[in-house]
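Researcher: Let's continue the batch. This sequence belongs to ABC transporter ATP-binding protein, and it's 264 residues. Same format as the previous ones, please.
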Amino acid sequence: MNTTVVPGSTGTVSARGLTKVYGKGAGQVVALDHVDVDFAPGRFTAIMGPSGSGKSTLMHLLAGLDSATSGSSRIGDTEITALGDDALTELRRTRIGFVFQSFNLLPMFTAEQNILLPLDLGGNKVDKEWFATLVQTLGLGERLTHRPAELSGGQQQRVAIARALITKPDVVFADEPTGNLDSRSGAEVLSFLRRSVRELGRTIIMVTHDPAAAAYADRVVLIADGRIAGDISDPTPESVLAGLDALRTLETTPVAATPGGGQA
Ligand SMILES: Nc1ncnc2c1ncn2[C@@H]1O[C@H](COP(=O)(O)OP(=O)(O)OP(=O)(O)O)[C@@H](O)[C@H]1O
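Model: Same format as before. Here are the C-alpha cells for ABC transporter ATP-binding protein:
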C-alpha cells in the first residue's frame, strides 16, 4: 500500500517538531520531543507505546485539546498550533470527532438523539442519507430508540462512533475505544471502526495498549520516550508485539551493555 503522505493535503494530519514539556526545572517532563509524523486521510492508524511514552499527549496536541510548547500540528492546511481558543473550539466541533473509553453518551437521550447531538449543538441540519449510512454501517438500526442504559457496552460505543462521524469530520481521534469492553464487544467495535474507514472513507487515529486492537488498523505508529520509534504497515498482532518488544530491548540495552550495571 502506498504510504506517501503530503502534509497540507486535504485531511492529512501532520506534526512537525511537535514538542510538549510539562513543568519547570528539576520536575520538568519532556512528554513529546520534536515529533514529525503524518497521518494520511482515509486510513486507520493506531498509536502504541509503553505507559508514559507520550501517546495521549500526541493525540491531545493533534486534536487541539492541549497546547504545544514548540513545533506545529496541522489538519489539512489549518495550523492547529496557531489558532486561538475560539477558532480551536470551532475546529474541534466541526472538523474533529472524538471517541473515548467511557462512551460519554447522555443518559436521558436515545441513541438517535445522542448521534444527532453534535448537529443540534452546531445548529446544523441532518444529512438524512449520511445518518442512514452510519446507522447501517454501525449496525444500529434496531437500537435507535433505546437509551444508553438499555444498550450493551459495545452498542454504546457504536453510538459514540456514529456521533463522532455525524458531522463528517476530517479526522476521528479514538482514545482506548475498547478499554471498557470485553474482548468480543471490543473486536466488534474495532471491526466497525475499520468499516467506517474502508466503506465511508473516514480517517481514524486511535490510541491503544492492545496489540490485537492495533492489528485492526492499517498502520501502527510506535512511540517511546516522546519520540516516534517505529512504523508498521498492515500490522498483525504478532508484528505489533515484535515492534513493542523491540522498544523494550532498546530501553534495556544501555543497562545490559554496561558491565557491573554502572552508568556508561
Ligand atoms: N499534566 C501533566 N503534567 C505533568 N506531566 C504530565 C502531564 N500529562 C502527562 N505528563 C507526563 O508526560 C509523559 C507522557 O504522558 P502521556 O499521558 O502522554 O503518556 P501515555 O503514553 O499516554 O501514557 P499511558 O499509556 O500510561 O496513558 C508522562 O511522563 C506523564 O507523566
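Researcher: Any comment?
Model: Confidence is low (pLDDT under 50) at residues 255-264.
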